[in-house]
Amino acid sequence: MKTMLSTKVGGPETLELTEMPDPQVQKGHLLVRIRATGVNFPDTLMIRDLYQVKPPRPFAPGGEVAGDVIAVGDGVQGFNPGDRVLALTGYGGFATHVNALAAKCTAIPDDMPYEDAACFVFTYGTSHHALKERAKIKPGESLLILGAAGGVGAAAIELGKVAGAKVIAAVSSEEKAAFCRGLGADETLVYPRELDRDAQKAFSAQIKELAGPDGVDVVYDAVGGAYAEPAIRALAWEGRFLVVGFPAGIPKIPLNLTLLKGAQIVGVFWGAAVARDPAGHAENMRELFDLYAQGRIKPQISARYPLEQAGAALELMQDRKVMGKVVVTMG
Q1: φ and ψ at 60, to 5 degrees?
Q2: What is the dihedral of CA 30, 36, 40, 45, to 10 degrees?
Q3: In whole angstroms, what is the distance from residue 154 CA to residue 156 CA?
Q4: Most exposed of 17, 154, 174, 287 (fewest Cβ within 10 Å)?
Q5: What is the H or E stretch that residue 144 is in?
Q6: 187 DSSP 8-state letter
Q7: Do 255 and 316 reside in the same domain of the chain?
């Protein structure tokens, strides 16, 4: 097998293409021949030891894969060699083969390409859990998405429209704004790369102008940093602020704002939710596959890289240049 290994703490340039013996299937696992691996922001953190999960080195990043079952481990039922599956591996996906826990594998619909499958669960799973279960969004409510052109942001646009919300997509460039409008965003807002106090006030005023005088009902924050506080200031009464991620840094929030607005700051830890409520996750996945089959959601893959160039895919992700999803293909 071939794999891109993280052998030392560092950026994408530290990954090393390595050949290793093909793995043997483990008990409770499926041995999967990977066809495609989705690239996600946690991959860029994991290789720098900045993520909450710190695998022992050497390891391959890549937590979301799709491929074919080669072998079925002892104790596994419901899967057979040759099945097409997607799997949440946590790491190990930048490789041609992986042992994936059978409990974290799902059969792929016949009409779903491997690339779509490899870019499906993490983003749509996160955003569906966030909007449906954490925000309990309702038809007619307004939804502001920070970092709307990224993987989870793009999924939130589509799922926000499915839920009947008015979607405001906030992004860092006009190019990204056009991308979001193409996904169905009702309004777009371009924010500056750096926000001083005056820029924060202007940003909050722009949000209120687009959402309406009462403010925005739900904020989906996949950015953090200086963008969080002005978004909270623009919340409506009983608004919900979803904490999804913070590539721009962990924000410090004046909690008096939540009191004044009767608002909630709600954490979105999708991976933990899946582990604690596997039945709920299975139901969510059925709903998402139905939406995919209806053509109402579809991963927006903007870039594809072969395994040998997986480092370049991570660079694109860490530099926040991604629109939609990036995928690594194994041929």
Answers
A1: -100, 130
A2: 70
A3: 5
A4: 174
A5: strand 142-146
A6: E
A7: no
What are the pLDDT digits (tens) for 116-150? 999 999 999 999 999 999 999 999 999 999 999 99
Q: Is residue 279, in this structure, part of any structural domain at all? A: no
Q: And the tokens for 129? A: 């859990």
Does residue 104 lie within any of the structural domains? Answer: yes
Domains held by the chain: number: 2
User: What range does the domain containing 84 cover?
Assistant: 2-120+299-329
H helix or E strand, kind and range, residue 45: helix 41-46
pTM of the full structure: 0.92
Residue 304: closest CA among 120, 3, 36:
36
* Cis geometry, peptide bond prior to residue 254 (ω within 30 degrees of 0): no
* C-alpha count within 13 angstroms, C-beta hemisphere, residue 306: 4
pLDDT digit string, tens, across residues 150-160: 999 999 999 99
Query: Is residue 294 in a domain?
Result: no
Q: Are 227 and 204 in contact (CB under 8 A)?
A: no
